[in-house]
Write a structure and sequence with these properties.
By secondary structure, the protein is mostly helical. 74% of the residues lie in helices and 0% in strands. It has twelve helices and no strands. The protein starts with 15 loop residues before the first helix and ends in a 12-residue tail after the last helix.
């Protein structure tokens, strides 16, 4: 058997295609809303449980992120063929080329760490200091701690440092964009999956830029406007009632959006790497 890496073909799209990925993901979500939200809830429950593990919890979450991403990919593959998401899908990655998926988690950890450290070039280490030693009382919701956090985040140099860190992290994020799907669906090794994902993402930078802009609008601007609108409409109610009603509207919106974003990973992968292909039959149970 030849050890020469296979050449993986991909399709280039213009900017509007990135918006279509979100639209098609929303349509897929609508086919099984409760099942998708249940899968998402179980995912975050597992992440919280992992984070609570002593010593290894903080590393386990980003390390296993590509593994759990396979669960949403498998669920989307199933829904596309008429099935429904199942909680069992969430663990699919542990039996799907785990040896190639775990290195992706290491790449994510190392890449983001280097990107954050690079912020010191711009802000003289303020962001690193803030992340390493957050103000006391942050977890308890202390008002003084909240004010200290606000002061740090409003510092122009810290903001520039965060922007520089984001730019440094961009190649890593693009290399990881399609990588879990390439490992699972095309049986690539970690290195080839990362390089192929990076090339395909750069070739589709217009679509990804439009996608990112739409995510910013739906995940950043819309919730902010929604909270402001609800606060104005409910201004006559007691504070506790106003907060509960606001959360009652905003949290379901955020949950649905996060589920749609998870689904869009599969939609974008299939569109870029399997354009025009007919669907494979649903695997028998």
């Amino acid at each position: 058997m030849s050890n020469v890496p296979r050449e993986i073909a991909y399709t280039r799209y213009d900017a509007v295609r990135g918006l279509m990925w979100l639209r098609e993901a929303a349509v897929m979500f609508a086919r099984a809303r409760i099942a998708w939200l249940s899968l998402l809830l179980a995912y975050y429950f597992i992440l919280i449980a992992l984070r609570m593990l002593p010593l290894v919890g903080m590393l386990a979450v980003p390390l296993l992120k590509p593994v759990f991403a396979v669960g949403f990919l498998a669920a989307a593959w199933t829904v596309e063929r008429g099935g429904k998401p199942r909680l069992a899908h969430l663990l699919q990655g542990f039996s799907s080329n785990l040896r190639a998926l775990l290195p992706l988690g290491f790449v994510f950890i190392i890449g983001i760490t280097i990107a954050v450290m690079a912020s010191a070039v711009v802000d003289q280490g303020k962001l690193i200091e803030f992340l390493s030693n957050p103000p006391a009382g942050t977890q308890e919701g202390d008002s003084a701690a909240a004010e200290a956090i606000e002061n740090v985040l409003l510092d122009t140099r810290v903001q520039l440092g965060m922007l520089f860190a984001a730019l440094c992290a961009l190649p890593v994020l693009l290399a990881l964009w399609f990588a879990p799907a390439l490992v699972v669906f095309q049986d690539l090794r970690a290195r080839q999956a990362l390089s192929t994902s990076l090339r395909a993402a750069l070739a589709n930078w217009r679509a990804l830029a439009a996608y990112a802009l739409a995510v910013f609008v739906f995940a950043g601007v819309t919730p902010t406007l929604l909270v402001a609108l609800l606060s104005a409409l409910l201004s006559g109610l007691p504070d506790d009632a106003r907060v509960m009603l606001t959360y009652g509207v905003v949290l379901p919106y955020v949950a649905m959006l996060v589920a749609i974003l998870q689904i869009s990973d599969y939609i974008s992968y299939r569109d870029v790497f399997h354009a025009g292909e007919s669907l494979a039959p649903l695997a028998p149970r």
